[in-house]
Each structure stands twice: as C-alpha cells, then as structure tokens.
Design a protein that fits this description.
Structural class: alpha/beta
Number of domains: 2
Shape: globular
CATH topology of the largest domain: Metallo-beta-lactamase, Chain A
Radius of gyration: 20 Å
Helix content: 25-40%
Number of strands: 19
Number of helices: 10
Largest sheet: 7 strands, mixed
CATH class of the largest domain: Alpha Beta
Strand order of the largest sheet: 6-5-4-3-2-1-19
CATH architecture of the largest domain: 4-Layer Sandwich
Length: 366
C-alpha cells in the first residue's frame, strides 16, 4: 500500500510539505515556510526520509529547507534553474538535479517531471509511474513566460487548488489591473521569480512605462543566460531589460518617485524595495499600491488592503476551476487531494467536480 501524508498544505494556505511512502521509500515533497505568519511544517514525528524533492523555488515550498537535518539530512533534488535561482537567494546550494522535462531515478524510484508554469524552473512530478503519485506543486496554465505541460496519468494526485472554485480568466484580470494602475506612480509588489516579470512584459507591450527592481532584473538576466524557455521569451526579456527603468534600492529615498509602474519584491511588501516604496507611498500619498497575489496574514499586504491604503487585483498563477478540470482530465486519478486550500474551499471544490474522489483528510492511501 502507498501512502501520502500532508504534513502541511492540506486544509489551509499553508507551507507545502508532503510525505510520500511508496515502494518501501520515504520522500518529502517540498519543505516550505508560510505564507501566513511564517508557519513551518512540524517534522518532529516524521523520522528519516530518503530524499526531498523540490517543485520550485518559492518560499512557501523551500523556506524550511534548513530543517532537513530533522529528517536525516537526505539529498535534496530540484531543477537546475531552481538550483541557480535558489543560490542567488541564499538558500542551500548542495542540491542534486531534477530534469525540467524527463525521467530520472531518486532513491531507486522512477521520477518523471514536466514544466508546471508558475515560476522559473517549476515542475510537476510523477513518482512511481502510472500506479504512483502525481504532485503538481504550484501550477499555472495561463502564463505566457514560463513553459507548462499537462501532467501524466497516475492513480493518486495532489494538486494545486489554491483558487478553489474561482474561475475568472487571466485576460479579464489584466483589464482590471490596468484600470487599477491608472496614471502616475503605481507600485506592484511581486515575486521576482514569478508573476512580476510576466506583468512587466505585458504592461510594457501595452505601452506602460515600467520600472524594475534589482531582484527582478537579476532573475531576467538569469533566464536569458540559462536559455530557459522559448527563444522569443529570452528576446522579450532582453527588450524588457533594455526598455524598463532601473528601480534602485534607494528609490524610496529619492525626492520624486518615477512616473511609472514600479514592479518590486517582495510580493507582500514585507521586505526589499517594495517594503520601502510602500512605506513612502502610504506616508506621502504620492502614488498607488496594487497587490496581485495571496494576502498573507501578518504581512503589510493584508494590512494595507484591509485599511484601504492599497488595492487588490488578482493575477492568476494557480489553476482556476477550468484549469483544475483540465488537470484532473489529464491525470485521471482514482483519488485526489486538493492542496493549499482551506477545508470549506475543498468541500466547495469537491461539489463543483462531483466525478472526482476527493480526500477529506490529510492522508491518501492507494
């Protein structure tokens, strides 16, 4: 019998961490922190594992990698692009390679991967073949910058259900965002290795003046250098670096903010250039702030939106309802776990997809 335990990531928008027991092996799938209140998985009862597989570099999937000693200091695996960007973020560099699109062996198990959109280097994983588990990590089929393919069939599946039954297409959200940006300085806090560059590419093409923080520029340079994705994407990023304004670390201290859409990390405005710019804008009212991702509890993003000092316009980086249907149709699982979604949201999603056998607890067996 195979078993999947959601150490964290089921019944809440919590950090990704799943224990897979299959063919006598024990693997951890992701080891994240947050996004709400910097919560970390409790590994005290897990015991040793054979390997840790990382789906992508975002903090809620990698932020607790310093805890690997608690599970026996196993080898950690991620794609080459994830590894490179993680090193730039001062995360562990001793990570073995996963293919971006292909097959390898980890602890004697077949691991097949494919691009998952969402972020540079992000992959879905099928572990143990068609009778095993498909784990999507975070998945996005609507983006235009990061490559994506539908995953392979598997008997069990843990999939990114972050948006539940929400079904608004990205095209409609883009129209709403353009309206919210308006004229004059506007700050869009965003993850540099994620939707920030996608938004920058779209807004530049739409005729907006865009300013990029150093972190976004570094990620763009890495993607160009790694030749990640189609040639047209690298060319578009090169044009973006050429045409966008540099948004310096001290931009918030200058007498005047640039009359531009300022795209800066971090996504929650808790740190980095975005934090300093948000504080400046709130203090003197010299611009607007629009958040486009999860409003994590305990962060400036949530506080500023609740206080009416910032707006919120979602930019899809997870599957909407139509995308969940497409994932399930591709994988055809016998049992599924909807991850990164509160319990009530899981119930609503199960009602919207009645043909699927949804897990009601944090454990799958098959």
């Amino acid at each position: 019998m195979n078993r999947l335990l959601a150490v964290s990531g089921f019944g809440a928008k919590g950090p990704a961490c799943f224990l897979l027991e299959i063919a006598g092996r024990r693997l951890l799938l992701d080891l994240g922190e947050g996004p709400d209140f910097a919560i970390r998985p409790d590994l005290s009862a897990i015991g040793p594992v054979d390997a840790v597989l990382i789906s992508h570099l975002h903090h809620d999937h990698t932020g607790a990698l310093d805890l690997v000693a608690a599970v026996g200091s196993p080898p950690v695996f991620a794609t080459d692009l994830t590894r490179r960007l993680m090193r730039a973020s001062r995360l562990p560099a001793s990570i073995s390679s996963l293919p971006m699109n292909g097959r390898t062996e980890v602890a004697g198990l077949a691991v097949e991967t494919g691009p998952a959109g969402h972020a540079p280097g992000a992959v879905w994983m099928r572990i143990g073949g068609a009778d095993g588990l498909l784990y999507t990590g975070d998945y996005s089929g609507e983006g235009r910058l990061f490559p994506v393919t539908l995953p392979l069939p598997a008997k069990a599946m843990v999939f990114d259900a972050s948006y539940g039954i929400a079904d608004e297409p990205l095209a409609d959200q883009i129209i709403e965002l353009e309206t919210a940006i308006g004229d004059g300085p506007c700050l869009l806090p965003a993850p540099p290795a994620g939707r920030g560059l996608e938004m920058a590419l779209h807004l530049t093409a739409a005729g907006c003046r865009v300013a990029l923080c150093p972190a976004h520029r570094r990620v763009a340079e890495t993607l160009i250098d790694q030749d990640a994705g189609p040639a047209e994407a690298a060319a578009a990023l090169a044009r973006l670096l050429r045409d966008s304004l540099p948004l310096a670390d001290d931009a918030a201290d200058r007498q005047r903010l640039p009359d531009a859409v300022m795209i800066a990390g971090t996504a929650d405005a808790a740190r980095g250039v975005a934090a300093r710019l948000a504080a400046r804008i709130v203090a003197d009212g010299g611009g607007r702030i629009v958040f486009t991702g999860h409003l994590a509890a305990g962060t400036p993003a949530k506080t500023l939106v609740e206080e009416g000092k910032a707006a919120f316009c979602r930019w899809n980086v997870h599957p909407r309802l139509a995308g969940s249907r497409a994932l399930l149709a591709a994988v055809r699982p016998e049992i599924v776990m909807a991850a990164f979604l509160e319990v009530d949201g899981v119930r609503r999603l199960a009602r919207a997809l009645p043909a699927e056998n949804f897990a009601s607890t944090s454990e799958l067996t098959w």
